[in-house]
Design brief:
By secondary structure, the protein is α/β, with parallel strands linked by helices. Helices cover 27% and strands 21% of the residues. The strands form three sheets. It has a four-stranded mixed β-sheet with strand order 2-7-6-5.
Length: 210
Amino acid sequence: MPMSAEDPGKPNLPGKIDPRKILLQENAALSWCRNSYRQAPSPLAFTRTQGRFSGPELPHAVLYLGANAIACFWESGLGRDLNDRMPVSRIISESDLKNRIEYRVRIKSKKLSLFNATDAVARRSLGAKTAACFLADHSVSRAWAKELMTTEVDGILYESTRHSPGLCLALFETEAALASLSLPIKVGSSYDNATLLAALFQEGISIIGE
């Protein structure tokens, strides 16, 4: 699966980062999507599960948000599992989709220090030579996240590499990030989202009954 319309190049591992040189932005969008398991302790539970920018060895837990419901689904646990399967095994049950709940999450303040991994100038300020540092091998992207977590950064803006592109936010569990989150508003289950179901069908994914 291609990561973008253009070849992002070969990733490099981070060296020593000078926090004074990192180009950050403080204008995060105020509304995001969240896809969470129905039985999760909280829809805004931060995770240390091994992922693109999260892991048990990293300084902060991470909350993954998406600009739209489809990109958010592919970045969630269910979407990641589905994406890793062979084409002949890309089957999902109605109950699995009903157990994934979609929320709208508002960020109450734009005053978060975010690293925009989609910005080439910002990447160069960090020493990342290519977009693949944040889009390719998860062990590489985790290494960059770990370095950013040692600075005053509250999260990473990045483009989803899944089948439906869309901006995503890996929010670090910092004091500023926690203070910025409002209570999530439940939208419905992934099974209730006709636009998402249509996108899954377009990807050749079969949905089976209970």
